[in-house]
Amino acid sequence: MSTNNIIMAVAGFMIMLTLALGTVGSPIFHHTNWTWVTVFVGFNLFQSAFTGFCPLAIVLKKLGIGK
Q1: pLDDT string in tens for the chain (67-residue length)
Q2: What pTM, to 2 d.p., does this model score?
C-alpha cells in the first residue's frame, strides 16, 4: 500500500469517526467539539494538495511504512 493510499484511508476514517462522535443524533455521540477534528483533517487535506506538506506522511516515513 502506498503512502498516499494510507493517508487517504486514515483521513477518511478520522472524518467518519469524528463526525459520528460529534453529531448529536449519532449512537456513539460524545460531544460536539469532535467536529473540530473533522475541520482539522479536512484543512490538512486541502493545504497538502497545494503545498505537498502532510504531517502524517512525515510520521509514516519515519516509521518506514509505505512506498
Answers
A1: 899 999 999 999 999 999 999 999 999 999 999 999 999 999 999 999 999 999 999 999 999 997 7
A2: 0.87
Kindly list the domain boundaries of the chain, sorted by start residue: 3-63
Q: Cell numbers at residue 26, please?
A: 449519532
C-alpha cell of residue 31:
460531544
Q: What is the DSSP string of 8-61?
A: HHHHHHHHHHHHHHH-TTSTT---GGGHHHHHHHHHHHHHHHHH---HHHHHHH
H/E run at residue 63: helix 55-63
Give the CA count within 13 Å in the CB-facing half-sphere of 14. Answer: 17
6: three-class secondary structure by DSSP: helix
Record the cell numbers describing residue 5, joined without a space. Answer: 493510499
